[in-house]
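Title: Prediction job returns without error message
Component: structure pipeline
Severity: low
Priority: P3
Assignee: unassigned

Description:
Job completed but the reporter wants confirmation the result is attached to the right record. Sequence as submitted:
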Amino acid sequence: MNPAISLSGPDVGQAEIDAVVAVLRTPQLSLGPRLPEFEQSFCERLGVRHAVAVNSGTSALHLAWRAMGIGRGDEVITTPFSFIASSNSILFEGATPVFVDIEPDTWQIDARRIEAAITPRTRAILPVDVFGSIPDMDRINAIAARHKLRVLEDSCEALGATYRGRPAGTLAEAGVFGFYPNKQITTGEGGMIVTNDDGIARLTRSLRNQGRDPDAGWLQHARLGFNFRLHELSCALGLAQMRRLDEILARRRQVAQWYVERLSDEPRVSFQRVPPDVGMSWFVMVVRLSDDYTQADRDALLEGLRRAGVGCSNYFTPIHLQPFYQRDHGCRAGDHPVTEALASRTVALPFHNGLSEGQVDQVVRTFRSLL
């Protein structure tokens, strides 16, 4: 049964519908003109030389690692508090994710812990812009420079965020975005690699299209590649969304503000701390229950919200506690206590542009009644 107030939903209107229908009236449903137009919209928005559209944020991460030369035997330092795709993308290339615990208030990778995790096999760092905020990228990049490490920024949740005035996704050698329907913009499924590195751009364009070089024939394959193309329907949808991006982000800020106004005086919950040099791009509305609550208490609260017709979830299960990470990679409970303490107490409340102020009131009343 679907909840009366859904957890998430895309902001899609007539402009997006018209854009997709226009493509359907053409004979070119893939590798047409909407692809470079969508990519160019990211170049212009972010001020980067290259944007490479692919079929998911996961594919974007995967191709970026391949283009950056990360492979078997290498280690990549990253956060255990993220969607599983960030670490899985490292495994796809035969490398090993090495987890570093998070800061208890920002919920971002704790940059102060990174150097202790570096070994002779460490080749890269993968910071994740969790929930639309951004970790301490200047410190992370300085560490990487000292140890000659690559840096890939996972901005799949952070389109529109800024760090010291610079856009998310542009704070490392390459950045990636995702366009699942709960993201700031959606293409149904899709992702984007952004970079100023000509080599990364050239190789990822080839890899997404079965290893073809851009100037080669259709049946000429320079390298092993993938079918990670983003078709014209998705590109048209994404381009229409990018034209509305400021409007979409403003609406998300308004919904977030309604929640903050109604819950900031509630001592039993806290919000993710956003550093003063970060401009937040709201992805989800996740609050943390106080330490008085156990995971069982949190789970009971989630069940109560669902019974009341309010969409909700925990966010995230720590990656190192996922079954196959424990079974195949030796991860154990207790490895990253800050992440575990947070993850056992998170509650994701309904968050999307379709919410009215009255619905937020209803969600908050129900939530408070269950605390």
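Comment from assignee: result matches the submitted record. The CA atoms of residues 315 and 346 lie 6 Å apart.
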